[in-house]
């Protein structure tokens, strides 16, 4: 029984981190689609020029900092948050949009 409780806690704990990573990708993609005028590849829109690239990078960094702060508040560290964002990003790269 204790093992099941621990397993459930770990799943819920990881789910919180996963949800933050999903939010990161959702919010950055939503912003990218309002700014970028380039082609769509792998379900995501690409910047058409350096100005668009700079805008989406600045936005992604700001959202990353927010997600890291929120992750730290619930007990994760920057490395764990960035790792989950990478993992979820792999899913986003091949997802149909």
Provide structural commentary.
By secondary structure, the protein is mostly helical. The protein has one domain. The chain is built from 3 helices and 2 strands; from the N terminus they run H-E-E-H-H. The chain has a two-stranded antiparallel ribbon. Strand 1 and strand 2 form a beta hairpin. The protein is elongated, with a radius of gyration of 16 Å. The N terminus is likely disordered.
Give the strand order, joined by hyphens, for the main sheet: 1-2
Radius of gyration: 16 Å
Share in helix: over 70%
- The tally of beta strands, per DSSP, is 2
Largest sheet: 2 strands, antiparallel
Distance between the termini: 41 Å
Instruction: Point out poorly predicted stretches.
Output: 1-7
**Mean pLDDT level:** 85
SSE string: HEEHH
Q: How many structurally independent domains?
A: 1
| Helix count from the secondary structure assignment | 3
Structural class: mainly alpha
Shape descriptor reads: elongated
Oligomer: single chain
